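Sequence design from tokenized structure. All designs in this work follow the same two-part layout: the structure record, then the generated sequence. An example of the structure record is given first.
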């Protein structure tokens, strides 16, 4: 009986020691800081070279992996808002100011590519909360805007063929840019990036390009307001009909409700 009691005591001590060791291991594992470990791994990777001046707050504007990831999400969101799918999704490429001196982003129809330039974004933003546009939040919204252009061009091909910037072309530009802004606003609301979209809109209200302020305001600000109203009163069918046959008169563009009546008279809303 004494030998049996001794073996039981030894087994109990071993079990207690095992439980203590297991508890210390689990405490260390659960108490580890995943953010700190991720940060240490990120710190080991040198940031890619970036052109222009801006705070080094986010390198995803230059990392092709993250550009592809964000563009895929942007295309999915644009398809959801527009209720249609891409026949062929565009690709994205970060370019320098030398390649694209003025634009922040541009959908290049000839190559089916979206070009973005963070240095140009930095040149446009003002101090304060607009600096959020230099992070991945601004990148995501910019990709949504350009992806909307890509889908519009795929569904409603537009060729100016050297036509001068008359009223019809100005209104057509405003409809295209306004629709891209309309889509971006709705996606920003879904993603919880309303603050970033408001900063994006403020930046477009006061562009630093010379001699184009009136065009920018009409295209991006009035264009978005127009397309928001068209969507509010007529839904997606009215938006698609407007993209298919944009207004040609400034008067129609200035009054979305008048434009909807005009489309009903032409039976465009079938």
């Amino acid at each position: 009986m004494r030998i049996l009691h001794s073996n039981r005591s030894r087994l109990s001590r071993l079990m207690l020691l095992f439980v203590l060791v297991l508890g210390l291991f689990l405490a260390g594992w659960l108490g580890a800081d995943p953010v700190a470990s991720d940060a240490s791994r990120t710190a080991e990777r040198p940031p890619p070279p970036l052109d222009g001046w801006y705070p080094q707050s986010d390198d995803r504007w230059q990392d092709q992996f993250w550009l592809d990831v964000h563009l895929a999400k942007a295309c999915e969101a644009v398809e959801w808002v527009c209720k249609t799918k891409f026949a062929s999704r565009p690709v994205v490429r970060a370019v320098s100011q030398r390649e694209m001196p003025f634009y922040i982003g541009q959908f290049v129809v000839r190559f089916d590519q979206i070009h973005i330039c963070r240095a140009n974004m930095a040149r446009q933003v003002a101090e304060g909360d607009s600096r959020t546009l230099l992070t991945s939040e601004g990148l995501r919204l910019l990709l949504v805007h350009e992806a909307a252009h890509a889908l519009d061009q795929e569904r409603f091909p537009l060729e100016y063929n050297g036509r001068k910037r008359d009223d019809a072309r100005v209104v057509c530009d405003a409809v295209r840019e306004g629709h891209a802004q309309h889509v971006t606003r709705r996606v920003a609301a879904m993603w919880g990036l309303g603050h970033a979209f408001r900063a994006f809109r403020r930046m477009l209200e006061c562009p630093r390009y010379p001699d184009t302020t009136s065009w920018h305001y009409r295209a991006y600000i009035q264009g978005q307001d127009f397309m928001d109203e068209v969507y509010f009163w007529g839904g997606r069918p009215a938006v698609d009909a407007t993209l298919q046959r944009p207004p040609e008169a400034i008067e129609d563009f200035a009054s979305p409700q008048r434009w909807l009546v005009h489309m009903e008279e032409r039976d465009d809303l079938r």
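Residues 1-5, 29-57 have pLDDT under 50 and may be disordered. We note this feature because it recurs in several other targets discussed in the main text.
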